[in-house]
Design brief:
mainly alpha
């Protein structure tokens, strides 16, 4: 809070409240409204950002894992570099090589396609237990006996234990996958963020716009 939240005549206004979030930028503006009834404490309202629409990216993303590197090598070997670069400066050689390499990359490296994210699903066993719990609850609502409630309670506890067990196993698999793979770790933590920082297209010294995310970091 940046302003006082408790205000009373002839007393020093005080700031008594805090709003805690697990991420930055989830709350941008806090409104200090009129107190309720005879209270000397202001009413606080704010808008909590729960989800933002994905920002479409115009960057070219190459799928280097599926590239034809033998094709790139064959293409570059057919060029007579000595004849091609005769009579030009080193800087001109570099510009020419970079342009040629970019054309070859466009030819032999496919682009990434945005795939659908797989939603987290509970196992068939858990889903079956949840359905049994639901039927037990409906039976108890219809016939409110101690026996029916005990059956519902038993299934409820089984569902809770099984879900916790599966989530624990999933966390262990995720943590094991982070070993010696920092890129996967940062990708996972970023996927859990509600507000994501995106790197926009940047203009290089020669006026050309960056085409890949890798160039934006230089």
């Amino acid at each position: 809070m940046t302003n006082a939240t408790r205000i009373r005549q002839n007393q020093t206004p005080s700031k008594l409240d805090y709003v805690f979030t697990d991420e930055e930028n989830l709350i941008e503006v806090v409104n200090y409204e009129v107190p309720l009834g005879k209270s000397d404490h202001v009413v606080l309202t704010w808008t909590l950002l729960l989800m933002i629409p994905p920002v479409p990216s115009n960057q070219v993303k190459y799928n280097y894992h599926k590239g034809d590197y033998e094709g790139i090598q064959r293409s570059l070997q057919t060029i007579q570099w000595k004849d091609r670069w005769e009579g030009i400066t080193v800087n001109e050689m570099w510009v020419d090589f970079r342009q040629k390499l970019r054309k070859v990359v466009d030819m032999y490296i496919p682009l990434k396609t945005e795939g659908k994210r797989v939603r987290n699903r509970l196992s068939n066993h858990v889903q079956r237990k949840i359905r049994e719990r639901g039927r037990a609850w409906q039976k108890y609502r219809q016939y409110q006996s101690g026996r029916n409630f005990a059956k519902y309670k038993q299934l409820r506890n089984e569902v809770n234990r099984t879900i916790r067990k599966e989530e624990d196993q999933k966390r262990k698999r995720i943590l094991a996958g982070f070993k010696n793979n920092p890129k996967r770790f940062h990708g996972y933590t970023r996927s859990k963020q509600t507000v994501k920082d995106n790197v926009t297209t940047l203009k290089k010294d020669d006026g050309e716009l960056t085409r890949t995310r890798k160039l934006q970091t230089y």
